[in-house]
Amino acid sequence: MAIWLSLCGVIVLIAYLLGSFPTGYIAVKKLKGIDIREVGSGSTGATNVLRTLGKGPGAFVLILDSLKGVLAIALVYWLFKFASSQNFIPATVDAQVWQPWVVILAGLAAILGHSKSIFLGFSGGKSVAISLGILLAMSWQVGLATAGVFAIVVAISRIVSLSSIVGAIAVSIFMVILHQPLPYILFGIAGGLYVILRHRTNIERLFAGTEPKIGQNVAAPEQTT
User: Fold this and answer.
1) Whether 36 contacts 51, CB under 8 Å
2) pTM value?
3) What is the DSSP string of 146-183?
4) C-alpha dihedral over 190, 192, 198, 202, to 10 degrees?
5) pLDDT, tens only, 56-97
6) For residues 80 and 99, is the Cβ–Cβ distance under 8 A?
7) What pLDDT score does 88 carry?
8) Is 176 exposed, middle or buried (0-12, 13-18, 19+ CB in 10 A)?
C-alpha cells in the first residue's frame, strides 16, 4: 500500500509541476523581453498575453495551458492502466473508486501550480485555460458545455473575466446535470470557487464598471515591496 500511495503522490506532484510550467511568462519574455507580471493585469495567463502580444501568441498560450491540464489528467489514467496491467494496485484498493479521487487531486494540483508556480515565486495565472483542459480530459461533455457558456458570454459582453466567472459557476451545474461522479462534482465546486477567487480584482472592476473589454488595456499592477 505504501508504494501505491507513493505512486499516486508522485503523479499529483507531477501534475503540480506541469501546471507550474510558466507558458505565458516564457512566451512574453522570449518575444518581447519583458516580465508579463509587470504589465496589464499582472497575470501570466492567455488573456494578459493577448493584451500584451496579440491574438496569435494569446491563442498559443491558451492552447498550451489547456494541454497542461489534459496531460495532468492523462497521467492519472495512464497510472491506473499501467498499474493494473502490472498488478501494482493492492488487493484492498478498488481502482474504480480510487481513480476519480486521484483525478481530482491531480486536477487541483495542476490548477494550483498554474496560479502559484514554483518557477515564478508562486505567482502565475488565473487557472482558466488549464481548468478547461482538465475538464475536457475529465469529462469532455462538461468541458465542451463550459467552453460553450464561456464563448456565449464573451461574445455578448466582450469581457473575458466575466465569461471566466460565469463558466466557473456553470461547471458545477453541468457536473450535476450530466451525472458525473461525486468527486468530479466536488472538483467542479472547489475548482470553480478557486477560479472565482483568482478574479477578485476583476470582480471589483466589474462592479465599478472599469473592467476592460477585449481590445482594451488594463492598468499595470501596483508593485509592492
Assistant:
1) no
2) 0.89
3) HHHHHHHHHHHH--HHHHHHHHHHHHHHHHHHTT--HH
4) -150
5) 999 999 999 999 999 999 999 999 998 888 888 888 888 889
6) yes
7) 82
8) middle
